[in-house]
């Protein structure tokens, strides 16, 4: 929301998002970053909510992320699937062992892409659904406390 005061921001955000309907579409990261750079002159905090899917990020976000992180503070936030952690501890039978191996691979892939994002100068918040909002708030407060914002 551009040009909104602190008191107007939440109401404008709610009004803007109320008519939105979910859809499974590929993000156009290049267009999104271009729009942010066009509209925002001052260094700002940009929070991107996305999946930590390595293939999708490598093809879309990672190539254009340096443009954004050079001018703004960027946080990539992702909701971790709690079921993956549950599957990773299973060892009761052969199927559970295969599920555990797949879950561990998924967790390793998420850690690897998060590491690549951090090396690009981006903060990463990867938390389960119940913790994502507090984790984002904590990251914001930590950035504020250390003078990064």
Automatic annotation (TrEMBL):
Q: Which residues form the DUF58 domain?
A: 10-112
**Pfam family name, one:** DUF58
**PANTHER family per UniProt:** BLL2464 PROTEIN, SLR2013 PROTEIN
| Designated name of the protein | DUF58 domain-containing protein
Species assigned in the record: Mycobacterium kansasii
């Amino acid at each position: 929301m551009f040009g909104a005061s602190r008191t107007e921001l939440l109401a404008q955000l709610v009004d803007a998002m109320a008519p939105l309907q979910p859809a499974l579409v590929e993000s156009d990261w290049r267009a999104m970053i271009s729009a942010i750079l066009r509209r925002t002159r001052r260094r700002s905090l940009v929070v991107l909510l996305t999946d930590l899917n390595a293939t999708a990020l490598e093809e879309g976000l990672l190539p254009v992320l340096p443009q954004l992180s050079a001018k703004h503070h960027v946080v990539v936030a992702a909701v971790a699937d709690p079921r993956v952690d549950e599957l990773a501890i299973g060892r009761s039978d052969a199927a559970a062992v295969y599920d555990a191996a797949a879950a561990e691979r998924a967790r390793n892939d998420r850690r690897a892409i998060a590491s690549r994002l951090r090396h690009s100068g981006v903060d990463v918040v990867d938390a389960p659904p119940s913790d994502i909002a507090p984790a984002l708030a904590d990251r914001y407060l930590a950035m504020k406390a250390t003078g990064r914002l």
